[in-house]
Design brief:
alpha/beta; globular; Rossmann fold; 10 helices; 8 strands
């Protein structure tokens, strides 16, 4: 898979506690389209959004726009936190708010994959005015224990690949049952995003201490839900993506989300599980169409 890459600038900002946080900044602050903020999954980073951010910044949604893709603390090019307990939704959401303030983002469309979707829902309580629209990528207010058990089983436990072919084999062994619609080129693209840094070095791109945040989860009991935070998204345009083979976002939860947000749009990504990679042209085009429609819709009066 060869997808065009729009140039970006790596920018660094200080969190409230002084930790250095990294952001990929695509496009111009003066571009006409509503800005986009991309928030990644638990162990993921800003590179996940390269093809999608490139399409949006270049104008595939109709207008050129600024796109920001964030690295949480302990991921990508952001500093690792010496205290793993700070790898929490509360601390990370505070980091997101600090970056939005530093970049003078008053309103944006948020694209959240997995954990990034949880952060988007949290923003409905912490800074609702900043939300002009939201894309939730395979995430909802209810997390399925089976999916959480699978995630806990690999975070911080994978062997380091020695090469990209080795990385492809590792990912296929771990994920091919749920991602049965990917080509060899797709797997290679995903391996590069997952394991290579800006200068091509191969290795984990997150702090292995993230595993400690999952150890205490009691998956024999229902996990706390986030329905109140999801309900805070009712007043904005919403697109929900679900991998057809997802084990974290159930069809039942998706149906309840649509019932609570009657205007929500949905898109199923065939041949993929949790979470869709946002690399295929069909999904990128679907997100671009959604974003373009928000551009043409006046902001809701407060």
């Amino acid at each position: 898979m060869s997808l065009p890459q729009f140039p970006f600038e790596s920018r660094f900002f200080s969190a409230v506690d002084g930790l250095r946080l990294h952001v990929r900044d695509y496009g111009s602050p003066l571009a006409a389209g509503i800005p986009i903020v991309c928030l990644a999954g638990l162990t993921r980073n800003s590179a996940d959004f390269g093809p999608l951010a490139s399409a949006l910044a270049a104008g595939q949604a109709g207008e050129k726009r600024r796109v920001l893709a964030l690295d949480y603390r302990g991921r990508g090019l952001s500093d690792y936190d010496p205290d793993w307990k700070n790898y929490s939704l509360a601390v990370e959401n505070g980091d997101v708010l600090s970056i939005l303030t530093a970049l003078e983002i008053d309103a944006a469309i948020f694209i959240g994959t997995s954990r990034g979707g949880l952060h988007t829902m949290l923003l409905s309580a912490s800074r609702p005015a900043v939300l002009r629209g939201a894309v939730l990528n395979d995430i909802g207010p209810v997390l399925e224990p089976r999916g959480m058990a699978r995630i806990r089983g690999y975070v911080g436990k994978l062997p380091a690949p020695r090469s990209i072919p080795d990385a492809v084999d590792l990912l296929k062994e771990m994920m091919s049952e749920r991602f049965n619609g990917l080509s060899r080129a797709d797997w290679e693209t995903y391996a590069k995003i997952t394991f290579t840094d800006a200068v091509g070095r191969i290795g984990p791109r997150y702090d292995q201490n993230l595993m400690k945040t999952l150890i205490g989860l009691d998956l024999e009991q229902p996990l706390p839900s986030m329905w109140p935070q999801f309900d805070g998204l009712r007043g904005i345009p919403l697109l929900i993506l679900r991998g057809a083979n997802s084990d974290l976002l159930s069809v039942e939860t998706l149906n309840e989300m649509k019932a609570r947000h009657p205007g929500a749009e949905t898109h199923t990504v065939k041949g993929q599980g949790h979470a869709p990679l946002l690399l295929d042209q069909e999904t990128i085009a679907r997100i671009c169409a959604f974003v373009g429609e928000i551009d043409r819709t006046p902001a809701r009066a407060e």
